[in-house]
Amino acid sequence: MTVAQLIPVFAAAIGAATPLMLAGLGELVAERTGVLNLGVEGMMLIGAIAGFACAVDSGLGAWAGLGAGAVAGALASLLFAVPALSLAANQPACGLALTIFGVGFSAFVGQGYVSDSLPGMQPWAVPWLSALPGAGPVLFRQAPVVYAALLLFGAVWWVLARTRTGLILRAVGESPESAHAIGYPVLLIRYGAVMFGGAMAGLGGAYLSTVYTPLWAQNMTAGRGWIAIALVVFASWKPGRLLIGAFLFGGVTILQFHAQTLGWTVPVQLLAALPYLATVVVLVVISRDKRLLQLNLPASLGKGFLPD
Amino acid sequence: MHLLEPRPQPSRKMRWLAPVYAIGLTLISGALLFTALHKNPFHALYMFFIQPLTTGYGWSELLVKASPQILIAQGLAVGFRARVYNIGAEGQLIVGAIFGGGVAIMTDGSSAAWILPVMVLAGAIGGALWGALAAWLKTQFNAEETLTTLMLTYIASLLLAWLVNGPWRDPAGQNFPQSIMFGDAASFPVLLAGSRVNASLFITLAVVALFQLLISKSFLAYQIEVAGQAPAAARYAGFSQKKAIWLGLCLSGLTAGLAGVGEVAGPVGQLNLNISPGYGFSAIIVAWLGRLHPLGMVLSGLLMALIYLGGEAAQVSLQLPAAMTGLFQGMLLFFLLAADAFINNRFRRRKPATRFA
To answer: Membrane-spanning residues where (chain B) (predicted)?
Structure first.
């Protein structure tokens, strides 16, 4: 194995990390306000089919698809938000319902799109930087949407950590009662965070169907929504660690496609199981220290709030 | 946006009415959906929910599809009562099918009478082991069972894919990812000639009876429930939450494993990639809709089977994709959860104006 062989592997890992990063960041923001939405997989699938259908039917290409995916994901999240927030129903169950619904809905709509394909998105070599040895071809010859996703990530990170908006979001997650008593509209803020999470999941899904693969297949997200939820735990609800986690998992996800280049002879199905296995391992490592987990966990996570 | 206020006391009536409301709302939404798809809603609902039951074969298929879902839901309900959320019954079903199917493949050619019982036992063990893995991860390392059971489901289905593509692939199967067809000694006998109803139905019935007995007569069921609803009180009373986690996950894994054997030694007849159309997930809805009550889940299991049956019928009679089934399942669960919110709460009433002098 030479360094030259590894460069395409690392470059592909970044492409594979992008949907995890987007969906994970959306879920992180929602969880920071105390809402546990297990519907990420469903929202990603709805975003994937909406994005694909829009890109195919409008002929406007991947960017239009990405926009449609984000809008569809945000709308889908309302299916979760109305029972889980306005009616304070069981959050994990509502999220599961959204995933079951999303799997069915996307398969239903996607029936007519199975044989279509899209051109995808040409990588854009960043002038000068892409010529750097090693890092150049890995980091700076990606599809433009990957750079956009990273910029978006930076922006959300900054808002969450450095602005008043971020402070309010976190306050709602720590103690909705206090936030309500001070006069913040807790439910409205949670609705906003959940819809943001939906938009990001939808964007991640649309990235898969319009840029990464780019085609539509039933259940094409293959558990990435669930891995994104696990990544939020792995990240201890901190965006920086989420970014690292997404790249790690992006790498594990694409190993099966590069096994031959790397000279491995393990059956492809077992290699394909690696990301799920890695998720379990990561959950174990992070969760075993209960006190550390409690320290970072948004205090009201998963608990409904009915203001009086 | 603030729609509800707590009731002074939870409504018992609402607990049993919620599923009725949910079913009603699902049917109304279904009618709207059919209308949007340019189908006559009454005709479409008839074709989906009634026409499949106008033949004897339709009723037999209803039993075939209801049995595994009822069986899995019985086990899931034990966990749900203890607030242990096993959402990976699909994976436990698959591992049960692998264990049971493995016995069938290794004993191929023999007609010994012990083969089927051993398959059932192996399936139960396989499913319970897969559930126990999640219980171990939860009790030992505090890893959330919602995520681990689901990850283990993906791992199980890839394990199955490897087996039927590799070591267990039928050599005469033209490279299709499937095992050999199981012989008579490795299959449940068909009960009604011309149908697919088979003796695995008795396992489901026995398990329903057993769980009914368990919740009505045993102290254990009470302990499990307390452990879920008030962990601190349970600890104080000497009931262990860990025990509830182990029991919840092992029992639900066991019933899912049994269901897996029932499928591969029943209607499917071999190991392949389509041994379950998502029964492990739909059983979650069956459990909640049936109020976690063994007999209630029989009714909700039959309803869920009808939704599967209707989805298949709609493909032929309405030219709609079979994915309709998933849509109806999702809607039903949403409406049920929304209706459940009214057990402990009610719509906000306008408060009388209060004045402080």
So the answer is: 16-37, 84-106, 112-137, 149-168, 188-215, 244-265, 271-290, 297-316, 322-343
Return the number of other C-beta atoms located less than 10 Å from residue A132's C-beta. Answer: 13
Chain B's closest residue to A272, CA to CA, is B158
The Cβ of residue B10 has, within 10 Å, a number of other Cβ atoms equal to 12
Which CATH number covers residue A153?
Answer: 1.10.3470
Tens-digit pLDDT profile for residues B102-114: 999 999 989 999 9
What token pair was written down for B345? Answer: 């709460």
Whether A99 and A39 have beta carbons less than 8 Å apart is answered as yes
Residue B283 domain flag: no
pLDDT digits (tens, 9 = 90+) for B272-307: 999 999 999 999 999 999 999 999 999 999 999 999
CA-based nearest residue in chain B for residue A282? B143
Which residue from A227, A238, A219 is spatially nearest to A280, judged by alpha carbons?
A: A227
Q: Would you say the C-alpha torsion B88, B89, B94, B96 has a positive or negative sign? A: positive
- Contact yes or no for B330 and A277 at CB 8 A: no
Give the distance from CA B25 to its chain's centroid.
22
Q: Do B337 and A277 touch (CB under 8 A)?
A: no
Amino acid at B18: A
Whether residues B153 and B36 share a domain: the answer is no
Residues B312 and B240 in one domain: no
- Chain B CB contacts of A292 under 8 Å are none
Q: Quick one: B170 and B130 in the same domain?
A: yes
Is the same domain home to B110 and B179?
yes
Pick A269's closest partner by Cβ from B3, B142, B162. Answer: B162
Contact A101 B333 (CB under 8 A): yes
Q: What is the DSSP letter of B352?
A: P
Please report the pLDDT score of residue A56 as a whole number. 92
The pTM score is 0.92
- Give the closest-approach CA distance of B333 to chain A in angstroms: 6
pLDDT cut 90: percent of chain B above it:
74
| Sign of the C-alpha dihedral computed for residues A172, A178, A183 and A186 taken in this order | positive
- Judged by CB atoms closer than 8 Å, whether chains meet at A104 and B325 is answered as yes
Domain containing residue B328: 1-48+294-348
Buried b (16+ CB within 10 A) or exposed e, A54-85: bbbeeeeebbbbbbbbbbbbbbbbebbbbbbb
Contact B142 A38 (CB under 8 A): no
Token pair of B99 as six digits: 């264990």
Q: What is the pLDDT of residues A158-213, one digit of tens each?
A: 999 999 999 999 999 999 999 999 999 999 999 999 999 999 999 999 999 999 98
By 3-state DSSP, what share of chain B in percent is helix, strand and coil, each rounded to 5? 70, 5, 30
B4-37 pLDDT per residue, tens: 888 888 888 888 899 999 999 999 999 999 999 9
* Residue B215 clears pLDDT 60, i.e. is over it: yes
The answer to whether A87 and B338 have CB atoms below 8 angstroms apart is yes
CA distance B191 to B176: 30
Comparing CB atoms, the residue among B137, B154, B288 nearest residue A276 is B154
